[in-house]
Design brief:
Layout lengths: L3 E3 L2 E3 L4 H9 L6 E4 L3 H9 L1 H7 L4 E2 L4 H10 L9 H15 L2 E6 L4 H12 L4 E6 L7 H14 L3 E5 L4 H9 L8 E4 L3 H5 L8 H5 L3 H8 L4 H13 L13
Parallel strand pairs: 3-4, 3-8, 5-6, 5-7, 7-8
Antiparallel strand pairs: 1-2
Helix pairs in contact: 2-3, 2-12
Length: 248
């Protein structure tokens, strides 16, 4: 299956099973997983620096119905949506079976710990080797302490949940300190869902591509983002095909 490019950002044309397999079989360097959705791609369309940032991903997953619709418009349809939070859930299940250590980074104070408690109820044999919040100073001594703590916990999988583009930028800027980690996945607000602080859309809404509507209903302040999503779908050109060159 051929990968595509939307707004200058490479998107991997993979199934969920392929995405999980590729993320965990990385050797040498960590597999860095980003999950571009329509809102992220619209901002990348307007800001080339954000597009360049997203193109540092080893694996770029199509997160959201808007991305699939845009891909269809280019004449290069994607095989399926690979939502970040579902990808994370699959990684937890694989990590539990394989005895892999997981670290949760992000959220407000106590959110990562609460998410860990809930995840262990579902995956009692999962090894969550460490957690910490996401509102630390991303430069200087505090950043160094957080990285040292992560390294001391020796995770195989690091979940970074601090929102776009903060999480992606932090990973790219600090990747040279995180080389012992197999998989680094940036999953936005997933920790809040796993902690139980935010409810995910009902399954039927996700199936028909209306998860964005649920978010708007639950968080009306996100309504402005809907206009950006519509702008993205309007501006995606026909047949913008990924040529295969290295985007980095």
């Amino acid at each position: 299956m051929e990968d595509i490019k939307l707004c200058g950002v490479k998107i991997d044309n993979v199934t969920m099973e392929e995405a999980v397999y590729r993320s965990l079989r990385a050797t040498g360097e960590p597999c860095v997983v980003f999950t571009p959705n329509a809102l992220m791609l619209e901002r990348a369309r307007k800001n080339i620096e954000l597009g360049d940032l997203l193109n540092h991903a080893s694996l770029s997953l199509p997160d959201g119905a808007g991305v699939l619709r845009a891909a269809q418009k280019t004449g290069m349809p994607l095989c399926e949506r690979v939502a970040g939070i579902d990808f994370g859930a699959e990684l937890f299940a694989r990590a539990e079976r394989a005895g892999l250590r997981v670290f949760l980074l992000g959220g407000d104070e106590g959110v990562a710990e609460k998410a860990a408690e809930n995840l262990l109820k579902k995956h009692p044999r999962l090894c969550i080797c460490g957690t910490t919040w996401g509102y630390f100073n991303k430069v200087g001594e505090e950043n160094t302490r957080v990285i040292s703590y992560i390294r001391a916990c020796r995770p195989h999988i690091l979940f970074v949940c601090m929102g776009f583009p903060i999480q992606e930028r932090w990973v790219v800027e600090n990747l040279h300190h995180l080389t012992d980690i197999r998989t680094i996945a940036c999953l936005g607000g997933s920790l809040d869902v796993w902690a139980g602080d935010i409810r995910r859309a009902p399954a039927w809404m996700s199936r028909v591509g209306l998860e964005w509507l649920w978010r708007m209903l639950c968080q009306p302040k996100r309504l402005a983002a809907l206009l950006e999503i519509l702008s993205f779908l309007w501006h995606v050109p026909q047949k913008e095909k990924f040529t295969g060159e290295n985007p980095l």
